[in-house]
Amino acid sequence: MAQENGERHHLYEDLLAMLLGTLFVALGITFYTQSTLLTGSTAGLALLVQYATDARFGTIFFLINLPFYFLALKRLGLWFTLKTFVAVLLVSLFAQLTPGWIILSALHPLYAALMGGSLMGIGLLVLFRHRMSLGGIGILALYLQDRHGIRAGLFQLVVDGLILLAAFVVVAPTQVLLSVLGALAMNLIVAINHRPGRYIGMS
């Protein structure tokens, strides 16, 4: 619920949001892994590597994010960087554990794409509203925009497009098309609900 007076979040609220947001994202990732689907940004890159090498998503996702924390520290400050580091760590951990917590004997790919994308969108929304992220490409995009004038949104779009193009080498074309639908669901949730002035709680 929006905080009308703009008061800061308490630490326990940030911690609960971090736990809930990362659990949502990890469940979405589990749906995607089960159906061999892709998403964008660093998570998409980690899924792509997983499908190509059979390495674990959690390990890849954690390692890929490591180089970006220096940029986050310079661009967004220590507190944001620490919270983002813990959020990435939790997603990496929960993505490993969730398949052991739920048994998916049958999962329709279209449902996996739309619901998995929606779960990740909700998780990201929770994290964004408490001033944390899942690191990676988004931080690099903000850095390049500040230092070199490259539009962050355009850079992110190009990277996501390259990930999806590379996916054609690793997964079936149908899975790529379903992944695009999932990405639309995820981005719609964030775009509709994460607007300046709509939610003014601070961390």
TrEMBL record:
Its main location: membrane. Keywords: Cell membrane, Membrane, Transmembrane, Transmembrane helix. GO terms for cellular component: plasma membrane. InterPro entries: UPF0750_membrane, YitT. Coiled coil: none annotated. It holds the Pfam family YitT_membrane. It is found in: Cell membrane. The chain crosses the membrane at residues 15-35, 55-73, 85-104, 110-128, 149-170, 176-193. It is a multi-pass membrane protein. This is Uncharacterized 5xTM membrane BCR, YitT family COG1284. The lineage of its organism: Bacteria, Pseudomonadati, Pseudomonadota, Gammaproteobacteria, Oceanospirillales.
